[in-house]
């Protein structure tokens, strides 16, 4: 982690996201009604979905802290992928609803020109959501938390949808009344895309896809750099919530005693954990290298 307080931020960020999303839902909803902006009202519904998403994230981050037990011997880390999938489904459902409402409004011809108050509301929420995105993406990345990262992208999607609302309101005011409703459709498409991406990433995590190649290369280089390691004949890793688990198999001098091989394994484990901060469960097996390689 970059800073010592990154772990503290992990506990605080989900509460900040929850409170900010409640405030934004209320703020945009009131301004949307007062200004007559369909786009801003749609955006307030998006923030309302974010409140539910933040609540789910809070619960799942807390649950993932539970230690491994008899029922779940590998811990509760994967619940964060479930949280990420729920956030994605909430966004996708909200996007479908927003698009339906906007299309019905265009078909009925019920197009109103909003006041510029809606533009002020959109501008404020753009700034707020972008700041929350940067805060959460930092905390999520440093803690390797898929749930917090998903929530960060939820705020980024809210910021981008508010940009669409701002453009739509301004265009409506200057003589294109349909622009505000088209902005609401643009918001729904954007939110739906992010929702689908979050669901896809969650499925990958739950299916135990491999960690990235750069991390595996780091582990390989660390293990190979130990002077007693002859070769590495097996290496794989998987993400389990915020943790990374590795299976590593090494070959050493066949003339070494068992206690010497065990000591090498512990040294390599410690070096891997130092190089990869989120490495937790490292299953490291040590076997003998071909005897011919050590004959003199």
- The number of helical runs is 8
Major sheet summary line: 3 strands, mixed
Outline, from the CA principal axes? elongated
Q: Which CATH class of the largest domain applies here?
A: Mainly Alpha
Strand fraction: 5-15%
Would you spell out the secondary-structure blueprint of this structure?
Elements: H1 6-35, H2 38-64, H3 79-108, H4 117-142, H5 146-173, H6 178-206, H7 213-224, E1 229-240, E2 243-252, H8 258-275, E3 279-288
Parallel strand pairs: 2-3
Antiparallel strand pairs: 1-2
Explain how this protein is built.
- The chain is mainly α and 296 residues long.
- The protein has two domains: 6-206, Alpha-lytic protease prodomain-like; 213-294, Cation efflux protein, cytoplasmic domain (Alpha-Beta Plaits, 2-Layer Sandwich), CATH 3.30.70.1350.
- The chain contains eight helices and three strands.
- It has a three-stranded mixed beta sheet with strand order 1-2-3, covered by helices on one side.
- Strand 2, helix 8 and strand 3 form a beta-alpha-beta unit.
- Helix 1 (6-35) packs antiparallel against helix 2 and helix 7 crosses helix 8.
- The longest helix is centred in the N-terminal third of the chain and has 30 residues, at 6-35.
- It starts with 5 loop residues before the first helix and ends in an 8-residue tail after the last strand.
- The relative contact order is 0.13.
- The model has no long low-confidence stretch (mean pLDDT 81).
């Amino acid at each position: 982690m970059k800073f010592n307080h990154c772990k503290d931020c992990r506990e605080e960020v989900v509460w900040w996201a929850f409170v900010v999303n409640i405030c934004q839902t209320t703020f945009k909803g009131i301004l949307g009604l007062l200004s007559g902006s369909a786009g801003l009202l749609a955006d307030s519904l998006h923030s309302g979905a974010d409140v539910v998403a933040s609540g789910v994230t809070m619960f799942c981050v807390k649950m993932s802290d539970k230690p491994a037990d008899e029922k779940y011997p590998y811990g509760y880390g994967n619940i964060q992928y479930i949280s990420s999938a729920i956030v994605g489904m909430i966004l996708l459902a909200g996007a479908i609803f927003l698009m339906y409402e906007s299309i019905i409004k265009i078909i009925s011809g019920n197009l109103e020109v909003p006041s510029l108050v809606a533009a002020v509301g959109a501008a404020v929420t753009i700034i707020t959501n972008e700041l929350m995105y940067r805060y959460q993406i930092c905390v999520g990345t440093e803690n390797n938390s898929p749930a917090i990262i998903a929530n960060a992208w939820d705020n980024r999607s809210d910021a981008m949808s508010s940009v669409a609302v701002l453009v739509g309101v301004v265009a409506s005011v200057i003589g294109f009344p349909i622009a505000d409703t088209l902005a609401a459709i643009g918001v729904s498409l954007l939110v739906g895309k992010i929702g689908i991406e979050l669901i896809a990433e969650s499925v990958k995590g739950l299916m135990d896809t491999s960690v990235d190649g750069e991390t595996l290369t780091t582990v390989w280089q660390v293990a190979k750099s130990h002077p007693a390691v002859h070769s590495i004949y097996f290496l794989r890793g998987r993400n389990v919530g915020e943790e990374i688990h590795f299976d590593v198999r090494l070959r050493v001098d066949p003339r070494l005693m068992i206690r010497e091989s065990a000591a090498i394994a512990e040294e390599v484990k410690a070096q891997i954990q130092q190089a990869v901060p989120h490495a937790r469960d490292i299953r490291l097996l040590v076997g003998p290298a071909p005897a011919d390689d050590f004959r003199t």
